[in-house]
Design a protein that fits this description.
The complex is a heterotrimer. Chain A is mostly helical. Chain A contains three helices and no strands. Chain A is elongated and about 50 Å long. Residues 1-6 of chain A have low confidence and may be disordered. Chain B has four helices and no strands. In chain B, 48% of the residues are buried. Chain B is mostly helical. Chain C is an alpha+beta fold. Chain C folds into two domains: 11-53 and 136-220 and 355-533, no CATH class; 62-129 and 246-323, no CATH class. Chain C has a seven-stranded antiparallel β-sheet, covered by helices on one side. The two termini of chain C are 25 Å apart. The model of chain C is unreliable at 1-9 and 515-535 (pLDDT under 50). Classes of the chains: A mainly alpha, B mainly alpha, C alpha+beta. Chains in contact: A-C, B-C. The A-C interface holds A 1-2, 5, 23, 30-32, 34-39, 44-54, 56-58, 60-61, 64-65, 68-69, 71, 91, 96-98 and C 2, 5-6, 10, 12, 14-16, 18-19, 159, 162, 165-166, 169-170, 214, 217-218, 221-222, 224-234, 239, 242-243, 327-330, 332-333, 336.
Chain lengths: 98, 106, 535
């Protein structure tokens, strides 16, 4: 964490990458994962959809906090963007919605 | 009375505050109940407040009212403690007396 | 945390403290405005009623209000496509109607201008006219749209709410000790005092802060997080139907048929809802053989803000369909919505909500103050943005209340017949807010605090006076007539003015004793004094 407060340009660009991953990637990962859950949960479709929407912000908040806590930026980026694209790919493989 | 839970919560929080080390020193009243007694009082008053909240606001709004009123009661208490620590004792007793007073005829 | 933290391995508490500080700061100014205007919105209909003092209506039953509204609509728009009727309750007092005209069958004809929403006296069905104002609706809209064009205001508000949520979680993780120490509030000790105040306001009302932040996100969840719907439904309307019930068929038959009386429908709906009352009535294709009447339940006395709805035939009053009973998830999200808006709350709980909202505002405000005070300590790591942060603090904490008071003052002082009067009131709020904040930049920071807080205090204290001179509902008369809304409003303004005046006085005390305050600020550098912790 603390290295980013030195103000050098490398630290700044790493911070920017981290913030982008956390805020945009975290949103995408939260949206993708809860959408996937809503799709595959074995309960009523409308109910699953509402649960997913209701809990999505908790997932997003958790991802945001972890993205700034974990020191290894590569790991943060891989996990969050992996979750985002992975869940999107799964949804795509499941085919269009009814 | 609908404000009963707030008064009981206030008294409960005052008990909790009086069980803290710093405040016991500031209040400097001889023969203050022990920390364990005060905590037991606080728990009893909070249970009473929860019961009165559910009684007054029903099973659904009751818990909301209880949590809200415990929080709300803390605000004046903290302000009072910062200026007049002994006031916590006085107003806490007064709040408990008022709330219990409305309970007895009921 | 700066130096010590640099040497440590970045533990959870350090990283959480870092996140808490920065997210809190960056979102803090907007969050302060959202909290303050949102708190005022708990009295949205009351503010509107105060801002239209010429209207003084007595509440009637929902059935009477519906009857008079329908009678009015039969006179002015018997062949409209839809009538929307918002039935009054004890707080809103007026019936609101909105007419949707049938589109002209000729495709080349100009579309009919959109009719404005009208308000009716519920007892008589007569139109009520009053000064043009946005009323409490303005604060309500601002607190999640931020006066920024759609959809950007709502997105920005959502982003700030997410920052708030993460700040709450990271704050709790960082400062476990606050749960022991939250009764402590020490005055006149610089940074220590701001920290105490921040802790106390945060911890005491923590359930409220967490609830209001999360449920705030839920109020706009369909916009912020529509992806689960997209993943599950080809057509979002299918989802809406599954959750809220089917909309009745909108096609008119073209055959005339008298509209059934609505009062019996309300009685039947009320029976079905176990005594609940309708909030809204929608009449589709009135006076047509295919007419329907939909009643939506109001959310008073229920935590779930999403009430059920019943569709009746508009010709013979048969019950055509009912919204499905909510499942656990729908119930949960409806309750979250209700918890946020507090629509169920009676007077006692409403004031509780209001005070807890103020505690939330204080938490954000003291957090912002703490951030700058911490970085102005003599031994603190210098930070180039500190001056900007201080000016923004003045702009948010002192100048926004001044702007809100100016909005209310403008309501009393602008001529009643002024063109686009409601918009002018809103402009005056923003000109006052940002103008005062800009002017304050010309003053040294200590003086800026004193002066802007004093301006805000005077503006609030002036409100009851101006109200007494410009209306016949001044404090004394209201008191004599038992007009408790106006009494409470004036008293609330006086209390707000007094609070701001007290703040201005404190700020003046600090600025008139620069030497002492510098010594006080330097105190944390002395470890002995810190450890002794004088009473």
């Amino acid at each position: 964490m603390k290295g980013k407060m030195t103000g050098s340009s490398i630290a700044n660009s790493r911070m920017a990458a981290r913030a982008l991953t956390a805020i945009v990637g975290g949103y995408a990962a939260a949206a993708g994962s809860v959408s996937l859950l809503a799709r595959i949960a074995p309960i009523d479709r409308a109910e699953a959809t509402i649960w997913a929407m209701t809990l999505s912000f908790l997932v997003y908040a958790g991802l945001l906090l972890w993205a700034f806590h974990e020191t290894r930026l590569a790991r943060v980026a891989a996990t969050i963007w992996g979750l985002a694209f992975g869940s999107a790919a799964c949804l795509w493989l499941l085919g269009p919605a009814l | 009375m609908r404000l009963e839970p707030a008064l009981l919560s206030y008294a409960a929080l005052a008990c909790l505050a009086l069980s803290s080390h710093r405040l016991r020193r500031d209040v400097a009243v001889g023969r203050l109940p022990t920390v364990a007694t005060l905590r037991a009082f606080a728990v009893a008053l909070l249970v009473l407040a929860a019961w009165r909240a559910i009684h007054a606001f029903g099973p659904y709004q009751g818990p909301v009212a209880f949590i809200g009123m415990v929080s709300m009661a803390g605000l004046p208490l903290v302000l009072l403690l910062s200026r007049w620590p002994r006031g916590a004792l006085v107003t806490g007793l007064a709040a408990a007396a008022m709330a219990l007073g409305t309970l007895i005829p009921a | 945390m700066s130096k010590a933290a640099l040497n440590d391995a970045p533990g959870v508490r350090q990283s959480m403290a870092w996140i808490h500080g920065w997210l809190g700061l960056l979102a803090g100014w907007i969050l302060f405005a959202m909290f303050l205007t949102g708190t005022a919105s708990y009295f949205r209909p009351e503010i509107t009623r105060w801002m239209q003092p010429e209207i003084d209506l007595r509440p009637v039953t929902a059935a009477t209000a519906a009857d008079t509204a329908v009678a009015h609509l039969q006179k002015v728009a018997p062949t409209a496509e839809q009538w929307f009727i918002s039935l009054p309750d004890a707080r809103t007092t007026a019936t609101r109607i909105f007419i949707r005209e049938r589109p002209n069958p000729d495709p080349n004809a100009k579309p009919a201008p959109r009719r404005p929403e009208l308000r009716l006296a519920p007892a008589t069905g007569e139109e009520v006219t009053a000064r043009d104002t946005r009323g409490g609706e303005h604060f309500y809209r601002f607190h999640f749209q931020l006066q920024i064009p759609h959809p950007w205001g709502r997105w920005l508000a959502g982003l700030c709410a997410m920052a708030m949520l993460t700040a709450i979680i990271s704050g709790v993780i960082t400062h476990k000790r606050i749960f022991v120490d939250f009764f402590t509030l020490r005055w006149s000790k610089g940074q220590r005092s701001w920290l105490d105040a921040h802790n106390a306001s945060a911890v005491i009302a923590l359930p409220f802060h967490a609830m209001i932040t999360y449920t705030g996100l839920i109020t706009l969840v369909a916009m912020y997080m529509p992806w689960p719907i997209q993943a599950n439904y080809k057509d979002p309307a299918t989802f809406e139907t599954a959750v809220f019930g089917a909309e009745p068929d909108a096609e008119a038959s073209g055959r005339l048929a008298a509209l059934t009386p609505v009062a019996p429908l309300i009685a039947r709906a009320s029976k079905e809802w176990g005594g609940g009352t309708p909030a809204t009535m929608v009449v589709r294709n009135p006076n047509d053989a295919a007419a329907t009447v939909t009643l939506f339940q109001n959310s008073r006395d229920r935590l779930n803000a999403r009430g059920g709805s019943i569709v009746f035939s508009g010709v013979d009053g048969r019950q055509l369909s009912t919204s499905p009973p909510p499942g656990p998830a729908a119930e949960t999200s409806g309750v979250m919505l209700g918890l946020h808006t507090g629509s169920f709350a009676g007077p006692v709980l409403r004031w509780t909500y209001f005070l807890l909202g103020l505690a939330g505002t204080a938490m954000v405000g003291t957090g912002l103050m703490l951030w700058t005070v911490k970085r102005k300590r003599p031994n603190a790591v210098p930070f180039f943005g500190i001056g900007l942060a201080e000016r923004l603090n003045v702009g948010a904490i002192a100048c926004l209340p001044a702007g809100m008071a100016a909005f209310l003052l403008a309501n009393r002082l602008l001529p009643a017949t002024l063109q686009s009067r409601g918009d002018t009131e809103v402009s005056i709020m923003f000109w006052t807010w940002f103008g005062l904040a800009a002017l304050a930049c010309l003053r040294p920071i200590r003086r800026a605090w004193t002066e802007t807080l004093a301006v805000a205090a005077v503006a609030f204290l002036a409100l009851p006076l101006v109200n007494a001179f410009t209306t016949d509902r001044g404090l004394f008369r209201s008191f004599v007539h038992g007009d408790w809304l106006f009494v409470a409003f004036d008293l609330a303004m006086l209390a707000t003015g007094a609070l701001l005046g007290f703040a201005a006085w404190r700020a003046a005390q600090i600025s008139s004793r620069p030497a002492r305050s510098r010594r006080a600020a330097a105190r944390p550098a002395n470890p002995l004094r810190e450890a002794v912790d004088a009473p």
